[in-house]
Design goal:
InterPro entries: F420H2_quin_Rdtase, Hemerythrin-like, Split_barrel_FMN-bd. The chain is of the alpha+beta class and 299 residues long. It has 8 helices and 7 strands, in the order H-E-E-E-E-H-E-E-H-H-E-H-H-H-H. Helix content is 54%, strand content 14%.
């Protein structure tokens, strides 16, 4: 739970479209909401940020304390985060920078906010620099008016994340393969990025399937009992995909040294199963949801 001071900053931020007074007057602040690594509950933290390209940089300074802040541990466990910036609110995947990229970005932060250099000098740990991608202003979210539209939105996000995991994995392995000479290959710099994106994808997919099995499918079966074989097939596919997710997660634990062929095989297997599953679900389920309003009417 935020301290009384932090909560007052959060309240003022939300009441004034991101503008706050006191010691943070004129500062570039955002609110970062993470999911607790141990509790699973949302935690909101006011943080300074620096804009960089199409993203925002935040630093796990913890005021130079010897340990990383709680919000950093949270986003490593749950990479999908909520960002409030001015009067804008969006979801993104938090990706800690690593290696030379981290050093370059930290120098960029220090150039705009020199106090972070003092925090780094006060501790032996390397202050993490986290990249929060901004939403693409050229791709406004379509208006969702039905449950069919919402399901399509979720499926589109899952397909997009999986495609990015494939692309980043190939870049990672290409960088490893390019190493020549003796000694250990330098880190390609995409290990954490792949981990965060793949973990966010797997967690979102698990939540989506759990929600379907626990709520949507039972409700729909009550209205369409003749489709029970369809729902049984979808539940079986959920279990099969979950098993592949577990194998992929095990590989991700050591992505920096993972065998490329094995990793590609597991990723391809899950991609093919998931794509076939989403295609089948859309063909059988979407027509039934076209007239179900979204968001649900309040009771």
């Amino acid at each position: 739970m935020p301290s009384a001071f932090q909560q007052s900053v959060i309240d003022e931020f939300r009441a004034n479209a991101g503008k706050v007074g006191g010691p943070f007057a004129g500062s570039d602040l955002l609110l970062l909401t993470t999911t607790g690594a141990r509790t699973g509950r949302p935690h909101t933290t006011p943080l300074g940020h620096v804009r960089y390209g199409e993203g925002l940089l935040v630093v796990g300074s913890n005021l130079g304390a010897p340990h990383h802040p709680d919000w950093y541990h949270n986003l490593l466990a749950h990479p999908a985060v909520q960002v409030e910036l001015g009067d804008q609110e969006f979801e993104t995947i938090a990706v800690p920078a690593e290696g030379a990229t981290r050093d370059e970005l930290f120098a960029r932060v220090v150039a705009e906010a020199p106090g972070y250099a003092e925090y780094q000098a006060a501790t032996d740990r390397v202050l993490p620099v986290v990249v929060l991608s901004l939403p693409d202003p050229q791709a406004p979210a379509p208006a969702i008016t039905s449950l069919a539209g919402k399901l399509t939105e979720v499926h589109t996000w899952l397909r997009g994340q999986l495609a990015q995991v494939h692309a980043e994995t190939e870049a990672h392995f290409a960088a490893r393969a390019a190493h020549r000479g003796t000694g250990t290959a330098p880190p390609p710099g995409l290990g954490l990025q792949i981990r965060q994106r793949c973990l966010a994808f797997c967690q979102a997919l698990e939540f989506h399937h759990t929600s379907e099995d626990g709520h949507m499918f039972p409700a729909m079966e009550g209205y369409h009992p003749h489709l029970r074989p369809v729902f049984d097939r979808l539940r079986d596919e959920h279990r099969s995909i979950a098993a592949v997710q577990s194998a992929l997660a095990a590989l991700l634990a050591g992505v920096a040294v993972a065998d490329p062929d094995r990793f590609r095989a597991e990723l391809t297997r899950m991609s093919e199963q998931l794509t076939a599953h989403l295609d089948y679900e859309e063909a059988e389920i979407l027509p039934l949801l076209a007239d179900v309003p979204w968001p649900p009417a309040p009771r």
